[in-house]
Amino acid sequence: MRRPQLLDRWGAARRRWSAYRARQRATLTESYRLEVPPGEVPAGDVPAGAEPAGTADPVGPAGPGAPEATPPGEQPSRAPGVPLNRQSPFAIGFVGALGVLTAVTLWNAIGTLSLTFTLLTVALFLTLALDPIVQRLIRGGMSRGPAVAFVMFGALVVFALLAWLVVPPVAEQAGALVQNAPSYVNELLQQRWVQDLDKNYNLTAQIQKQVNDRLTDQGFLSTVAGGIIGAGQAVGSGIFQTFTVLILTLYFLASLPTTKKAAYAVVPASRRARVVYLSEEMMRRVGSYAIGQVGVAAINGLLSWVAMRFLGVPYAEVLAVSVAFLGLIPMVGATLGGALVTLAGLLQSTQTGIVLLVYYIVYQQVENYVIVPRIMQRTVAVPGAVTVVAALAGGTMLGVLGALLAIPTAAALLLLYEEVLVPRQRRL
């Protein structure tokens, strides 16, 4: 825009602001006036040539225009005093202190409700991930209620299948470990290097003494009991939180169209179409990214299970589920899963570990250049630097959950940058 046009707009804005301030000052001045009864002349508005109020003969007859006498027992009306100076240091400091106190109270309230916000965020993320499946079922002829019920039933089946794959092997191996613990200890004591340490430093007697001391120490036993109770409480809290997230996801899925309609109704009608388009596109991309990431992680876990079963690696089911969950973490999840499986292979044999290492190196290339581009083709392409920064920031603030939500959040912000900020700058 040219300089004269800018100056004209600036001058018009200053004139409008000056007129607005003049109107506000007139309104404020008028609000300070007392209501004047009919026939009475307010103080300060004495006509030219007339005597001020109070100078007429108090005992003489009242002339025309003279103020009426105040009835006995009543206070004479007076003009209002000077209003409170809101620019005084005391007023500014008092209002500022109230603002700081309000901000601290809100911050403490948010910190107290952090777990609630986390559960709501996870439920909303799952809702956006499952809503495309619901929409596809609706386009196929189903109504929204049965479609939501079918999707939630499928999600529960998946969770039950994962639990069936993980819980029995873990419980079985834990029981076997407890049962075989004495034999493991005897085998350890039969090792030559352990016998040398026992011979030179009386290691067995020292260990027995420490064990007996701990078993007779009430403080240690209380700590162990507290740790067991705390672990049980953590497990119970995790189950309750998982159930809460599933219930919230069900409610969000069922009421998502109504909720969006109510939210869009708040937007001014002149901008509603644009806001609806941007919001729907953001939710579509977030949901598509979530489904795509789950698909990539599932393929990684399935192929890892096939490789481990072929090589005879123990605990293949548990490791495959761990690889799938780690694959949900952006950038480093697949690498962590591959390192975990390779370590398990090395514990079995060196050859198995080397084969698994080569397999994961090859698989990473196939995933990066074949699987991910095909699955993520409908999502927004986030630049690599933005992906790294978003994942680091999200992981620092919210841990693994923040890392999972960082990239779809960055994709949504990138959409606002491309559709709102850049066109606006071009018009200026």
What brief labels describe this structure?
428 residues; mainly alpha; extended
Q: Please mark out the parts with pLDDT under 50 across 5 or more consecutive residues, or reply none.
A: 40-67
Query: What separation lies between the terminal Cα atoms?
Result: 7 Å
Q: Structural class from helices and strands?
A: mainly alpha
Mean pLDDT: 77
Extended strand count: 0
Shape: extended
Indicate the percent of residues in helices.
over 70%
Largest sheet: none
Number of helices: 12
Give, in order, the helices and strands: HHHHHHHHHHHH
Please outline what is shown here.
The chain has a domain of 173 residues.
Task: Describe it.
The protein contains 12 helices and no strands. With 428 residues, the protein is mainly α. The protein has a domain at 94-266. Helix 3 (114-139) packs across helix 8 (269-311), helix 8 packs antiparallel against helix 9 (316-327) and helix 8 runs antiparallel to helix 11 (350-375). It is extended and about 100 Å long. It starts with a helix and ends with a helix. Mean pLDDT is 77; it is low at 40-67.
Give the topology:
Blueprint: H1 3-31, H2 89-112, H3 114-139, H4 144-189, H5 192-201, H6 203-215, H7 218-266, H8 269-311, H9 316-327, H10 333-348, H11 350-375, H12 384-427
